[in-house]
Amino acid sequence: MRASPAVSVLMPSYNHGRFVEEAIESVLASREIDLEIVVVDDGSTDDTLERLGRWSRESRLHLYRQENCGAHAALNRCLEQARGELIFILNSDDAFEPGRIPRLTRVLTEQPDVAIAASWIRVVDEAGIEIGVKEGWRNMPPWPRTGSGPTIAGLADERLALLETNYISTTSNLAFRRELVDQHRLRFRSLRYAHDWEFILSACQLGRIFLVDEPLVRYRVHGANTIREGAESSQGQMRLEIQWSVARHAVQMLERAAETSDLDFTALEALAWNSMPSFGRQTILNALLLLRGSSDEPPAAYDALIEPSHPFYQESVAVLAEDLPNPERFEKRAQEI
């Protein structure tokens, strides 16, 4: 068995031959950190494996291969193989900025109540040219709001803002302690588009989110981004995964926040309802919240809703993908379930 380093950088890899070596180099630039890179290639069909082969003599890089199972499965296998006490994630088309690993390592080492450490994001194009800097929830929203009035992100609470938007934006912006996943059995759920958001929502109920106000990761926007694919060809599935993830955690997060906030639960609830991503389909979000209930753990019937074979899933995906003249049928579906 190989020795345990201080830091494991998990790198799920899929068809990013053009970018993967830049990703690796950006990690290994942190020479002062005892680290390993755990790469799980998720069935790449381009030259990714050939490029990874050039690093076969790098003792800190450990490569595993699997059939194409999705990013969530590759990440979970990375977690199984990682040995470090601190976990960073870097997708194979992104890159770390200099100083990211030591900066976030200090946060996680010195502040034990922090569950997730993240930073602002430098958004770049395929060529690495900067598009802008995403400063958490404050700018560059992923979609336009459909409502008006104050929102829950306006409270500037790192946890509650996640009910409105995944401002952490990408798994490449995640750092956490290994004990977070080991003690609480956290894993990435089988969601194509929202596995990162659901993981963060789960983790933030176990501790604080610490957001460094400096861009320490480069997030690359290109034609093969999974989230761009979702927006263009699988919009209904992506939107339902987002709504399901947010509704799964909303009530519990609001109840905990009300215990320590100047606002009571009713006021927080009103802000949240005006903020959560409805995509113009409030009826579906309401049905999900109703089916989730207020218990600490979601009922099995709720988790079943995200299965592609479930009638609710199929109807919701169709509605969220396009206009529907009669969305009221979802209230009836919720009652039936």
Describe this structure in words.
By secondary structure, the chain is of the alpha/beta class. The chain folds into two domains: 7-232, Spore Coat Polysaccharide Biosynthesis Protein SpsA, Chain A, CATH 3.90.550.10; 233-336, no CATH class. 39% of the residues lie in helices and 18% in strands. The chain contains 13 helices and nine strands. The strands form two sheets. Strands 3-2-1-4-8 form a five-stranded mixed beta sheet, with helices on both faces. It has a four-stranded mixed beta sheet with strand order 5-9-6-7. Strand 1, helix 1 (20-28) and strand 2 (35-42) form a beta-alpha-beta unit. Helix 8 (235-260) runs antiparallel to helix 9 (265-273) and helix 8 crosses helix 12. The termini are far apart. Residues 329-337 have low confidence and may be disordered.
Chain-wise SSE layout:
Blueprint: E1 7-13, H1 20-28, E2 35-42, H2 48-53, E3 61-66, H3 71-81, E4 86-89, E5 95-96, H4 100-110, E6 114-124, E7 130-134, E8 175-177, H5 178-184, H6 195-203, E9 208-220, H7 226-233, H8 235-260, H9 265-273, H10 282-292, H11 300-303, H12 311-321, H13 329-336
Parallel strand pairs: 1-2, 1-4, 2-3, 6-9
Antiparallel strand pairs: 4-8, 5-9, 6-7
Helix pairs in contact: 6-8, 7-8, 8-9, 8-10, 8-12, 10-13
Defining traits:
alpha/beta; Spore Coat Polysaccharide Biosynthesis Protein SpsA, Chain A; 9 strands
Compact description:
The protein has 337 residues and is an alpha/beta fold. It is built from 13 helices and nine strands.
The value of Rg in angstroms is 20 Å
What is the helix/strand order?
Answer: EHEHEHEEHEEEHHEHHHHHHH
- The helix content is 25-40%
Provide the low-confidence segments as ranges.
329-337
Count of extended strands: 9
What oligomeric state is this? single chain
CATH topology of the largest domain, which one? Spore Coat Polysaccharide Biosynthesis Protein SpsA, Chain A
- Beta-strand content bin: 15-25%
How many structural domains does the protein architecture include? 2
Class computed from helices, strands and strand pairing: alpha/beta
Instruction: Give the mean pLDDT.
Output: 91
Could you give a short account of the major beta sheet?
Answer: 5 strands, mixed
In whole angstroms, the N-to-C terminal distance is: 49 Å
